[in-house]
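Please, why this fold?
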Amino acid sequence: MNKPFDRYASMAFFLIGAVFVWESRKISATSYGSSVGPDIFPMGLGILMMLLSVRLFYEVFRSKAASGEKQIYDYKRFGIILAAAVLYAFFLEEIGYLIGTTLFLFIGFQVIEPGKRLRSLAISAAFSVVVYYVFVVLLEGSLPGWPVWFS
């Protein structure tokens, strides 16, 4: 654990989260045809970011002094997940939320823990379907469900 970096990163992310919450209050509360307004996601993201940064700050002060070992960074895994995230954002409209999110999560799970492909695919698909159902059906929001060429 890199204590100084983590400490400053937690402070920076807390401030970014606070800005998200503050600025999301300026967005209109509802959008036409949806009970979930455009202010909900940035506000929720900001609150989550603030909570996680407080947790990181707490963990930094709770951890023992770092040993003199040099950290090894895994750039290959980072690059794969970054590329998958960029492709996910780029093709979300064309392939839809359900297929895109399932593929993105599957790739992420395989990068983190290779093997157990069927289990990873099942968890990815279940998560995508549950989030889609909650957001679109229960909260009456909108997401690109299936691609146009699939229907």
